[in-house]
Hints:
Blueprint: H1 5-19, H2 23-39, E1 44-47, E2 50-53, H3 67-84
Antiparallel strand pairs: 1-2
Helix pairs in contact: 1-2
Amino acid sequence: MLFKFSQILxxxxxxxEKHGLAAPFIVTSRFLEYFxxxxxxxSYFVYAGNKYQYFYHLYNVTFRNERCVELPIVQHFLKNSxxxx
Length: 85
């Protein structure tokens, strides 16, 4: 499953409290953007000679900020450090 409803409901409540009646439009646009990126956008970036795929998640709107780049790099280093020890 791409997401858990238990993670999404608090986010929807927060958006509603912040934006009022515009909340359904904001939530819908974020879902559509997230699903498009998650299902169809297979973009990559290169860092230190390695190729990484962008990380997309609804939590903290990672598909709209620098987390989509930071997390794949950190995951790579954690995976490699586990092999070294």
